[in-house]
TrEMBL record:
<feature type="binding site">
    <location>
        <begin position="74"/>
        <end position="78"/>
    </location>
    <ligand>
        <name>(6S)-NADPHX</name>
    </ligand>
</feature>
<keyword id="KW-0547">Nucleotide-binding</keyword>
<feature type="domain" description="YjeF C-terminal">
    <location>
        <begin position="237"/>
        <end position="505"/>
    </location>
</feature>
<feature type="binding site">
    <location>
        <position position="333"/>
    </location>
    <ligand>
        <name>(6S)-NADPHX</name>
    </ligand>
</feature>
<dbReference type="GO" id="GO:0046496">
    <property type="term" value="P:nicotinamide nucleotide metabolic process"/>
</dbReference>
<feature type="binding site">
    <location>
        <begin position="141"/>
        <end position="147"/>
    </location>
    <ligand>
        <name>(6S)-NADPHX</name>
    </ligand>
</feature>
<keyword id="KW-0630">Potassium</keyword>
<feature type="binding site">
    <location>
        <position position="170"/>
    </location>
    <ligand>
        <name>(6S)-NADPHX</name>
    </ligand>
</feature>
<comment type="similarity">
    <text>In the N-terminal section; belongs to the NnrE/AIBP family.</text>
</comment>
<keyword id="KW-0511">Multifunctional enzyme</keyword>
<comment type="subunit">
    <text>Homotetramer.</text>
</comment>
<dbReference type="InterPro" id="IPR036652">
    <property type="entry name" value="YjeF_N_dom_sf"/>
</dbReference>
<comment type="function">
    <text>Catalyzes the dehydration of the S-form of NAD(P)HX at the expense of ADP, which is converted to AMP. Together with NAD(P)HX epimerase, which catalyzes the epimerization of the S- and R-forms, the enzyme allows the repair of both epimers of NAD(P)HX, a damaged form of NAD(P)H that is a result of enzymatic or heat-dependent hydration.</text>
</comment>
<dbReference type="InterPro" id="IPR029056">
    <property type="entry name" value="Ribokinase-like"/>
</dbReference>
<dbReference type="Pfam" id="PF01256">
    <property type="entry name" value="Carb_kinase"/>
</dbReference>
<keyword id="KW-0067">ATP-binding</keyword>
<feature type="binding site">
    <location>
        <position position="75"/>
    </location>
    <ligand>
        <name>K(+)</name>
    </ligand>
</feature>
Amino acid sequence: MRLARLDRPLPDGDRLPHALYRAEQVRRLDRLTIERFGVPGIELMERAGAVAYRLLRERWPNTRRLTILAGTGNNGGDGYVVARLARADGLDVRMLQLGGADRARGEAALSLAAYRDAGGVVEDCLGLPRETDLYVDALLGTGLERPVTGRWAETIAALNAQRAPVLALDIPSGLHADTGRVLGVAVRASATVSFIGLKLGLFVGAGAEYRGELHFSALDVPAQVYAGEILAAARIDWARESRLLAPRSRIAHKGDCGHVLVVGGAPGMSGAARLAGEAALRAGAGLVTIATHPRHADWLNLDRPELMVSAVERPDDLEALIQRADVIAIGPGLGRTDWGRGLWERVRALPHPLVVDADALNLLAESPGCGPDWVLTPHPGEAARLLGVTTAEIESDRLGSAQRLQARFGGVVALKGAGSIVHGPAPRVPAVCSDGNPGMATAGAGDVLTGVIAALRAQGLEADEAARAGVCLHAAAGDRAARAGERGLIATDIIAALRPLSNGLAEVDR
């Protein structure tokens, strides 16, 4: 899902912030704004409703019939503001209430009273209207911690079955604000407008699936409010991380750009090592050697002669190659036979910077250890094996899973998936990549990422920098490749986009 830009930007301009927060952090920011800076809570609610209504009119200008679903908390209060503004603008508004309007308290009760004073009518939500142009989800907000049940779950399921678009206020109802987990059932929004601080759950887990187009407003909260709050994570993208790649020196030679050694490609899996090697070249490595099984070493580079290929029968065959390498990427197509195990045991003991992927991660899970200078690139299944848990447990809290992986294995962890997470040693906060698309769920895409990170490391970036920039470059290349459609995208399409993007020659769709 894209991160939308408006022709006439919201009050915070046309860029989403890079700071991501947990729900409790945003509540603290809200309280501080009220208590220390004297902004009344009802004023923040009015601002939120006004921003949401402005987006509504810009995004769906032909809306005439509007249905707003409100809960009893502040999220519902935002909805009452939208309803009041819409009625004043001449729209046909139906305000449907779950949980009983008499349960509204604080600012939500004030907003409800203002809506009624303006002539608005509140109906109990006994079902959804058949005819409406747009729904506004103002049901549950960010405080939800338990599964949605009863009439609330029935209403959300019915909403998801409607054809009309849905605008979610702050976060789609039913989505956990910290982890992006679906708590039983969640609203599938066409667009979400988030307030004060971007919620982490909009970028991890199922967040990208449920949020739709994402918009943001800080509601003119004073900048000082944010000073004392440490980020839960940082949102990263290629537009920002590309700054790490300095222009090439006019007198550079291939040795200055680093030598990557890719170790992998057991019989039947030669393509994985080949993809990693070509990706490393396209991401700027000066030299790439593939150490692979003798069965296919003679022809692995037939249509890519720039790749050097060496047959390795035993771990000792690596010695001369190791001496020339700046960075070693191990795992693509490695397998878990005696051949692959022997190569892994030799490489893991080296002082070289390593990028560890695929079967090398599975072998690491069998014999855990801590590496100070490696980048681990697990997908959720590999992460589950490394931590001895289920894949579902990894996906239920992706940021927490990345933190546990880094604590147990050291180095830098790049947990792949929707909203790939990069977690390195303190004091850097973890990072969540907002580039990428579901077309990248294709064979070999992970091998391409391994080559990209290894190439950036070989060109002089530190492990954490190479992981962040590599994840974003890989994701942005996937976005560029997906311009022709997500379905049918293959790993070599991603490789083809690496060169122009890494040179700043192509604009990335947002």
